[in-house]
Recover the amino acids of this structure.
């Protein structure tokens, strides 16, 4: 294919924030009187903050809460999460991520972030990665969650590139589906048994070169 843009999910593709989400959700669950496992955390990859909270409360058998109570809990978790991510350093960028995004730009391929996270701007700033992306679409600017393609379609449109010329990099099943739903190719970051709908699956951005993209 003629690749004109690469759109990257953030969490699990550029940086591994899952451990911080896990610690913050676990603290909240424990405060509410139940436990939260790493296996459950896996199921929250790519899932928005509110949707994650609803799942967790369900696992803890917590009955209906008002919108106000839900917001309070989500804000509490986010405050703990933000406390942790503000201490992140560029050393936490996943192997090969910075190099691959830079190589795309050097080859004339446009780059964007397409993430569900409302904390995207602070994470990119902390890691010193903001200037590497031509467009940033995140949880602050989209309304429909993945697998809806909105986040990636918006990214492609900001870059002025047709979906057929875009490749999305994603670690979540819903993210791969979002890319496909938007008419884009998808490279999965993770395990082929999990990311079955991806056009190709690699373990990380250190496992691919810009030259290989034309064969996707
Ligand atoms: C996704 C993560 O990228 O962003 C999810 O994979 C997270 O785990 C979601 O819940 C929303 O993040 P935030 O930072 O807006 O709470
Ligand atoms: Mg992700």
């Amino acid at each position: 294919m003629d690749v004109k843009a690469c759109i990257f999910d953030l969490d699990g593709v550029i940086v591994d924030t899952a451990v911080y989400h896990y610690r913050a959700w676990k603290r909240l669950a424990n405060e509410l009187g139940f436990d939260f496992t790493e296996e459950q955390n896996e199921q929250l990859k790519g899932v928005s903050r509110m949707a994650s909270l609803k799942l967790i409360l369900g696992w803890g058998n917590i009955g209906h809460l008002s919108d106000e109570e839900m917001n309070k809990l989500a804000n509490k978790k986010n405050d703990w999460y933000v406390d942790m991510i503000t201490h992140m350093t560029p050393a936490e960028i996943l192997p090969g991520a910075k190099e691959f995004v830079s190589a795309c730009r050097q080859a004339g391929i446009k780059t964007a972030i397409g993430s569900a996270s409302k904390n995207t701007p602070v994470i990119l700033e902390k890691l010193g990665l903001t200037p590497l992306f031509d467009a940033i679409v995140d949880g602050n600017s989209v309304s429909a969650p993945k697998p809806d393609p909105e986040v990636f379609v918006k990214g492609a449109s900001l870059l002025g590139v047709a979906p057929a010329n875009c490749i999305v990099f994603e670690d979540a099943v819903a993210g791969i589906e979002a890319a496909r739903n938007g008419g884009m190719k998808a490279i999965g970051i993770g395990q082929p048994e999990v990311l079955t709908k991806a056009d190709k699956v690699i373990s990380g951005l250190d496992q691919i070169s810009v030259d290989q993209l034309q064969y996707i």
